[in-house]
Amino acid sequence: MSPCPDAGEKLSAYIDGELQPEERRSLCRHLKTCTACRHALTTVTTIKEMVTRTAAVYPLPPTLRRVLPLASLPSRRLAGALLALFRRRPRLRRRPQSRY
Amino acid sequence: MIAEPRVTPLARHSTRVVPEGRERSRDALRPLRGYNGVASLSYPDFCTLAVTYMAPLYNAARRLTKDAQDAEDLVQDTYLRALRAYRQLERPSQCRAWLFRILHNVFVDTYRRQQTVQGRRVYDRDGAAEDDLLASVPDSADGPEGQLLRRLSQEEVWCILATLPDDLRNIITLCDFDGLTYPEIADVLGCPLGTVRSRLARARRLLLIKFRTQADSRKLGKENPS
Hints:
- The complex is a heterodimer.
- Chain A is mostly helical.
- Chain A has helices spanning 7-15, 21-33, 35-53, 62-65, 75-88.
- The model of chain B is unreliable at 1-37 and 116-142 (pLDDT under 50).
- Chains A and B meet through helix 1, helix 3 and helix 5 of A and helix 2, helix 3, helix 4, helix 7 and helix 8 of B.
């Protein structure tokens, strides 16, 4: 049982909360009468949950973590410290001339 | 007869008088400087705001480069570019999308070119194969299928995500991993809002097909252990 042809985009935007109010109302009215689109909504929601679940959160490396305490400095000192830190920080590795 | 140069509104704060033919270059700068003709944030305030986005930027950089050291370099280059061009930020509320856009642009300009063929995935934008797949397999929305799909492990889902074409994978990660809104994604990728909607829908439909294929192959593997 396939959903309605133009429902795919609207369902995807609906679960992301990106539909305009009028579009959302229209879709809700449609979902009350269309079983195929209701099932498609369940499936798209499942897809989004599965993808979101795999989001890895990487901890900041020490060299970048050093910047965060600077945020407590007065703004002017932070600005100078940030620029100096990024300019002075060496590249972690030098790239070879050619990698092909 | 020589046209008398006139003082343009932008020049009223300086003593410089802009000749008739030169004012166009000043007007071109006007939108970059914000509504009042000055940057929307002072430099120190911009730094305070920008630092708060370092962790999500690093996560996005890790997903793009797939390498911790490259991700650090990418974040460094992003901040350096942002600090130099902070005046281009029109509103503080756009800071997150603006930084993500710089990150993506720096990645495309610098790092994607250095990907090698051997040992690392070459990013290609050819979605022709995926388009055929989308066209050939009808969509099906059975409820119990959701339960079958949920049995896929996180590693399997991650591997399938990596097989998506670049443009679809970027949109999915910006939306579902980084939590950007559609207008922010459109700003980061430099595409219309309608394109974001259609690509997201297409990406999710393609993921459904790939997840279903993977789930079916696991089911067949269990039924035929040989």
